[in-house]
């Protein structure tokens, strides 16, 4: 198993946000963690990446307990995050944004090999490699944010709302691209509020509401689930 989150509770100061969250991601899957604004998706990611210590519970990555490991050590093990809002360096070129992402030893050693792989996946980034990241379109910036996470040769790619702020046509493009990454062998934890679209590409998904997992099933079943339809799909 690539990722196992076991009974996580967490919060900020006195305020508890997450209650007994358990989920897992198997190698080669896209697993969705889906819910509305404020449901606790980003907080769950903060615990998984090590930016927030849980009150209780455990995180296992490839069967190793990483609950107390520093964030950068988790990246070295192969856990990479595509952060919400992309977090690019807008004045740096596409190439230099990618170079700056190579902060682990393994990423630096393999940088030019990985770059070739990235340029094959995203030809538009190759075309625009010398252009400042801030001049790219929204969809291209999201591709660059994903590419930055790939620089660290992840075994698990975690994406925080990759469709946020994109025009509807680009949302579909980015989700297709995420599907393509899975077909190339990547393992993906996808955080989304765009539940309808995310369920179309996810193998399985968890629905989170006010800090609790309320449903877990394969994507197709959730798309047809009456509660999900009513609460999230406007049907
Ligand atoms: P979004 O789509 O807005 O990111 P989310 O599902 O990711 O939503 P979280 O960001 O995890 O939700 O937020 C869950 C709850 O935790 C919200 O009620 C939010 O106000 C609260 N929260 C988030 N960050 C902090 C913080 N640093 N301090 C206190 N409360 C916070």
Give structural notes.
This protein is an alpha/beta fold. It is built from 11 helices and 10 strands. The strands form 2 sheets. The protein has a 6-stranded mixed β-sheet with strand order 6-7-8-3-9-10, with helices on both faces. Strands 2-1-4-5 form a 4-stranded antiparallel β-sheet, with helices on one face. A hairpin with a 2-residue loop joins β9 (about 205-210) and β10 (about 210-220). α7 (about 140-150) packs parallel to α8. The longest helix has 16 residues, at about 170-185. It is globular, with a radius of gyration of 17 Å.
Question: Average pLDDT value?
Answer: 94
Q: Radius of gyration, Cα only, in angstroms?
A: 17 Å
Molecules bound to protein: adenosine-5'-triphosphate
Strand tally: 10
Helix content: 25-40%
Number of helices: 11
Low-confidence stretches: none
Largest sheet: 6 strands, mixed
- The best one-word shape is globular
N-to-C terminal Cα separation, in Å? 35 Å
N to C succession of SSEs:
EEEHEEHEHHHHHEHEHEEHH
How do the strands line up in the largest sheet?
6-7-8-3-9-10
SS-based class = alpha/beta
Work out the strand percent. Answer: 25-35%
Short description:
The protein is of the alpha/beta class and 235 residues long. The chain is 39% helix and 26% strand. It has a 6-stranded mixed sheet with strand order 6-7-8-3-9-10, with helices on both faces.
Features:
single chain, 235 residues, alpha/beta, four-stranded antiparallel beta sheet, 11 helices, 26% strand, binds adenosine-5'-triphosphate
Topology of this structure?
Blueprint: E1 3-12, E2 15-25, E3 30-34, H1 41-49, E4 56-61, E5 64-65, H2 71-77, E6 79-82, H3 94-100, H4 105-109, H5 111-121, H6 123-127, H7 138-150, E7 156-160, H8 168-183, E8 188-192, H9 195-201, E9 204-209, E10 212-218, H10 219-223, H11 226-232
Helix pairs in contact: 7-8
């Amino acid at each position: 198993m690539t990722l196992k989150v076991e009974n996580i509770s967490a919060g900020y100061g006195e305020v508890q946000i997450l209650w007994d969250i358990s989920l897992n991601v198997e190698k080669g899957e896209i697993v969705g963690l889906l819910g509305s604004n404020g449901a606790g998706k980003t907080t769950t990611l903060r615990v998984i990446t090590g930016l927030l210590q849980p009150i209780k519970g455990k995180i296992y990555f490839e069967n190793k307990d990483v609950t107390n490991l520093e964030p950068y050590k988790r990246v070295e093990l192969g856990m990479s995050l595509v952060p919400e809002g992309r977090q690019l360096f807008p004045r740096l070129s596409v190439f230099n944004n990618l170079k700056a992402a190579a902060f682990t030893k393994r990423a630096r050693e393999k940088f030019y090999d990985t770059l070739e792989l990235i340029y094959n996946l995203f030809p538009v980034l190759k075309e625009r490699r010398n252009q400042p990241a801030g001049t790219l379109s929204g969809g291209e910036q999201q591709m660059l944010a994903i590419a930055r996470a790939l620089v660290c040769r992840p075994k698990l790619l975690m994406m925080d709302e990759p469709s946020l702020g994109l025009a509807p046509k680009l949302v579909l493009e980015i989700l297709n691209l995420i599907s393509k990454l899975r077909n190339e062998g990547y393992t993906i934890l996808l955080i989304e509020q765009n539940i309808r679209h995310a369920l179309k590409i996810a193998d399985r998904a968890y629905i989170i509401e006010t800090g609790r997992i309320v449903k877990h099933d394969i994507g197709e079943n959730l798309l047809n689930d009456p509660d999900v339809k009513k609460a999230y799909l406007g049907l």
